Fold:
Amino acid sequence: MKKILILLFTTASLAGVAQQQPSFTLAEAIETAIQHNGSIKAAVYEVESQKELRKTSFDLPKTNVTLLYGQYNGFPRNDHNISVTQTIPFTAFGSQASLNRSLATSSQLKKAVTENELIYQVKSVFNQVSFIKSRHQLLLQQDSIFEGFLRSASFRYKTGEGTLLEQTTAETQRNELKNQLRQNEGDVMVLRLQLKTLLGVEILPDIHAVELTELILTNLPDTTIVKANPSLAYARQQVEIAKNQKKVESARFAPDIQLGFFSQTLIGVADLETGAIATKSDRFTGFQVGLAVPLWFVPHQARMKASEFNRKAAQRSFEYYETSVKGELQQAIQQYLKNKSSMDYYRSSALPGADLILKQSQAAFRGGDIGYTEYLLGVRNAVGIKESYQHTLRDYNQSIIYIDFLLGIK
Structure:
């Protein structure tokens, strides 16, 4: 009974550990990152903030309500005057609304930029994990080879056919492979921690077992389509913001409209036609219309010039960034073509040759046709070719991931 309880407890604990470490596919990881990553949440709040600020487009200053009470009309009684005035700035007639719309669009584009960068990082992590897991399989294959080599070397040394150097070499090679396997496991843990940050989750995630396979790039992109790049669209929007900011400064330079209304008493004033005397019950009303004209132009002119410089700076920044993105895309395409050419070489020639070298080296060593020095040289050459192919395949996939990033492809 005690053994059964221990078994049940162990099974439940393992199940809990498995539940605590969810495994993600690439699509699931991207979706989770977009929902929970802190930078995305911050970008969403900024979008909501700009949506609310659009309601401030028609923003009027505070309404002035004043009371004038006292003997402003004569000695006998105290009169009172109530006045209501409102200033309407010229920015309320469209320029501020245009600026607010462009700022709202900018916040949405900034969110798209954040998403694009986040997706690129998640894809890169998965590509690296695929590489490390494929390398792990290759290391296991090498480990199996050197385990056999060690057994053979130990047997040959015991029977007097081999040397201590051969046995020591075999044991050293086997231990080196064990160390590389441990390092490989550590690399996976580092990537899992990186993925945890990207996904914005509390539990250390695992990555669904994926094989390092070739990604497909259907057509080579043209540099003219970089306009879809979210960062470039965001830079272009900064030019629009600068233009609208200049319009706002121009509107602030224009006169403000002032509207007012008053209601007052004029106790004791006589009507010249009827001779009636005004009392406190009689109200005299009217309205005011005016303009607030700036008399000191230097600050306004300075703000206008500054806004024009900001517009020029935004335009030049956009043009430079567009050139940079086009250049990066051209470099990414060349990197892709270089890696693709290298992959074609490995698949057509190098990999079959490596398999043949490994097979013949093992057969020759078992048959006593070659010594352990030649055997190790053959194994290392074959394994080195396979490792180089894995590195090339990883770099090839990364070049496609980077091209997708530059084009804003999710």
